[in-house]
Specification:
The complex is a heterodimer of chains A (314) and B (324). With 314 residues, chain A is mostly helical. Chain A contains 13 helices and two strands. Chain A has one domain: MetI-like (MetI-like fold, Orthogonal Bundle), CATH 1.10.3720.10. The chains are: A mainly alpha (314), B mainly alpha (324).
């Protein structure tokens, strides 16, 4: 790449972050970023995502207490409304739950779990879905028919239902939830990647790679895959949001994460049990956080779709 | 056509067999139902009697063979908890779920179509952007939390509507339904809204996209050139064109709404299939869970088959069995 946009961008613009990602050279992603940034809503949403991600990463250092360390919580402080000051000293910004846990701290820990499950299952689903989609498109014939038949079958069932069925059989657990979410998500990636790969496959650069005698593996993953990424990025963003939502839902129904690894969904579920008694904050605040997270990711994804859609290319 | 149908039906049988095997083996590994059903102070003799009565003493493949044999004759096992055939339990609750799902779709269309129509006719305006962003908010809103907030505001806060149960049902045109009594309708409003909001965004976006695609078409220009009023163009000509695809897509969503009703029913204690399955999972009521999974798999395979057939009817470009 010949251009030199390497003069360090002003610290105040976040474009440096995008340019610095190893996805591709700045020259290729710069226009995408510029167009993305034209929407202020999308920019704000992106910042919210970044902030929440940071909050999740440094959560344990940010939280006033470790809500799952029994020595740190006081049962006498249970069910305090927001902005309460305990007689023992601690201040509870968002109140406490049934067991006297600080809701703010519990939410930071919950955010960590929720984001981890969402990103891990999204990432694994991308790996599985993209590989199978590429193989289907590149191999064609029987392999293609077989993979796509399975994809069609998977997509015929609602996400939540398949995950519910699997967890009814598998039982609770972080790795089981992630497995269930990967199973329900990979098909979306496979379908999108196959469609793109089919049109890419006949282009000259693939023919060139073939005539150079490169191995199939290298052509598929080294040359075909990078050019099929735009739809993957868009769907990936949306699927992370949907995975977070699905995990929260499953945990709420008591089928997702165990009580020892509380996600936002489980916090809301705990709050539901006492909501009728007027203790609204226990389920309202984690829900608001969950909503903000999913909403922000979806707005970013929606904007990415507009920007990366070849039909809208300028 | 016939070949296609036969092939699909064979596939259906294959899938059902596979699902039944997975379900059976999977559920067999979860706990011992005899332990859960018996009181803690049950004697060893009572335990043995229960295990014998439930057929839990036989080897697993015999249990599966019995299970399959019975399933073919419509007997999907007897609930450990209710002691009634599980298929009866599920079918008994199906009307409540269907009523909820249909009400939700109705609300989604009545609210969503006009909003989508407006947004599609005035793209780029402030209200359009609000509607579009609102629709993103709509599908970002976790369904279960949105339901809790409905309860918090309308049941606990304002005290307007009941938060749980189905209320009084009455008979309307020979069908037992909540629509027949005021109490029933009051109980239906919150759960139906909860379920509707989840599809509302879809209806809005779909209508908007359809309108935007249709407006620049030649027949609209022609109608304008003929001097037909804009209201009539949109209300009659455009509406007619976009109605078919929208109705088709919404119809296909019925299945997914029934699936999502699991969440709504759990929150609002709506006595439908969804609440039954969650309760049964928690009580390890194996026959009911197995029966539900088989029934729902069957239902979805049928829905997908109908959708495929509909597509062929609507779009002659789709060739049946062209793949494979």
């Amino acid at each position: 790449m010949s251009d030199t946009p390497t003069v360090a961008p002003p610290v105040t613009t976040p474009s440096g972050m995008i340019a610095a990602t190893p996805l591709a050279t700045p020259s290729r992603w710069r226009p995408v970023w510029d167009e993305f940034a034209e929407s202020r809503t999308a920019l704000i949403a992106l910042w919210v995502c970044v902030l929440l991600l940071l909050a999740a990463i440094i959560g344990p250092w940010l939280a006033p207490q470790n809500p799952y360390d029994l020595t740190e919580i006081s049962f006498f402080d249970s069910r305090l409304p927001p902005f309460s000051v305990s007689p023992d000293g601690p201040f509870y910004l968002l109140g406490t739950d049934n067991q006297g846990r600080d809701m703010f701290s519990a939410m930071l820990y919950g955010l960590r779990t929720s984001l981890f499950v969402g990103v891990a299952s999204g990432g694994l689903a991308i790996a599985v879905g993209v590989s199978l989609g590429l193989i289907a498109a590149y191999a064609g014939g029987f392999v293609d028919a077989l993979i796509m038949r399975i994809v069609d079958f998977m997509l015929g069932f609602p996400t939540i239902l398949v995950a519910l069925m699997m967890l009814a059989i598998l039982g609770q657990g972080v790795e089981k939830v992630i497995l269930a979410l990967v199973v329900v998500q990979w098909a979306y990636f496979a379908r999108a990647v196959r469609a793109t790969a089919l049109s890419e496959r006949s282009k000259e650069y693939i023919e060139a790679a073939r005539s150079l005698g490169l191995s199939h593996t290298r052509i598929v993953f080294g040359h075909l895959a990078p050019n099929c990424m735009p739809p993957v990025i868009v769907i990936g963003t949306m699927q992370v949001a949907s995975a977070i939502s699905a995990e929260a839902t499953l945990s709420f129904l008591g089928l997702g994460l165990p009580i020892t690894e509380p996600s936002l969904g489980l916090l809301i579920s705990n709050g539901f049990n006492v909501m009728l008694a007027g203790l609204y904050w226990i389920s309202v605040f984690p829900g608001l956080l969950l909503l903000t997270l999913i909403f922000a990711i979806n707005i970013v994804g929606d904007r990415l779709r507009e920007v990366l859609n070849p039909r809208n290319a300028r | 056509m016939t070949v296609f149908l036969i092939r699909r039906l064979l596939q259906t049988v294959g899938v059902l067999l596979a699902v039944s095997l997975v379900v059976f083996i999977g559920l067999y590994a979860v706990g011992n139902p005899a332990e859960i059903l018996l009181p803690d102070d049950a004697t060893e003799a009572e335990r043995q009697a229960a295990i014998l009565a439930l057929g839990l003493d036989k080897p697993i493949w015999v249990q599966y063979a019995v299970f399959l044999q019975n399933a073919v004759t419509g007997d999907l096992g007897t609930s450990f908890v209710y002691n009634t055939p599980s298929i009866t339990l599920i079918l008994q609750r199906f009307p409540a779920t269907l009523e909820l799902a249909l009400s939700a779709l109705f609300i989604a269309i009545v609210l969503g179509a006009p909003l989508g129509l407006y947004a599609g006719l005035h793209p780029g305006t402030r209200l359009d952007r609000t509607i579009v962003t609102g629709s993103i908010l709509g599908f970002s809103l976790p369904n279960f939390w949105q339901g809790l907030m409905l309860i918090l505001v309308f049941s606990i806060g304002l005290g307007w509507l009941p938060s749980s149960g189905r209320g009084q049902t009455g008979t309307l045109l020979g069908i037992e339904t909540s629509f027949a009594t005021w109490d029933g309708i009051r109980h239906l409003i919150l759960p139906a809204t909860n379920l509707a909001l989840f599809k509302l965004a879809l209806v809005i976006r779909l209508t908007r996209a359809q309108v935007r695609e249709t407006m620049p078409l030649d027949f609209v220009k022609f109608a304008r050139a003929k001097g037909i009023s804009e209201t009539r163009i949109v209300g009659v000509h455009v509406a007619k064109t976009i109605a078919a695809p929208i109705v088709t897509v919404i119809g296909m969503e019925l299945g997914s709404v029934i699936a999502f009703a699991v969440i709504t029913e759990s929150i609002f204690a709506w006595p439908g299939m969804g609440k039954l399955i969650i309760d049964s999972i928690n009580k390890l009521d194996r026959p009911v869970v197995a029966a539900y999974l088989l029934v729902i798999t069957f239902m979805f395979i049928m829905i997908n088959l109908i959708v495929d057939l509909l597509y062929t009817a609507l779009d002659p470009r789709v060739r049946l069995g062209g793949k494979a």
